[in-house]
Amino acid sequence: MDTRYQLQKITVKSELQELQIVWGDGHQSRYPMEGLRRSCPCVFCQGGHGNMGKPVDPNIFAEPSTRKWEITNITQVGNYALQFSWNDGHQTGIYRYERLRDMCPVEHGII
Ligand SMILES: [Zn+2]
Fold first, then answer.
1. Which of 40, 75, 106, 107 has CB 3.0 to 4.6 Å from 93, enough for a Cys bridge?
2. 3-state secondary structure of 104
């Protein structure tokens, strides 16, 4: 298995409005919560089944915050994805590790 897509450590930094993930290859990703929420892969947020599975434009992480986000719970889905519960009650998004890593704003030089 590609260590790029292995989850090693996950940290929620509420005061920084960031989710931080350390991957199996040692890369440390930082995801501003606004962009993480906006990139929610669920069918509702993606605007219908026809839009599912499209890659995320990492520039979404350069967008300013519209509110203060909290991740109230994180559930590991099998060994391939994370499900976040947000403080607006939304929790249907299943974020696959590949999707998270590929949209990493640190790796793309966005933040
Ligand atoms: Zn959603």
1. 40
2. coil
Q: Determine contact, residues 82/10, Cβ cutoff 8 Å.
A: yes
DSSP letter, residue 92 = -
Query: What pLDDT is stored for residue 54 in this prediction?
Result: 85
CA of 72 from ligand 1 middle (Å) equals 15
| Distance from Cα 83 to the centre of ligand 1, integer Å | 10
Enclosing H/E stretch for 36: helix 33-38
Q: Which tens digit of pLDDT belongs to each residue from 17-72?
A: 999 999 999 999 999 999 999 999 999 999 999 988 888 999 999 999 999 999 99
Alpha-carbon distance 20 to 28, whole Å?
7
pTM (two decimals): 0.95
CATH topology of domain 3-102: NE0471 N-terminal domain-like (3.30.2020)
The answer to whether the CB of 8 falls within 8 A of the CB of 24 is yes
Calpha distance 81→108 (Å, rounded): 21
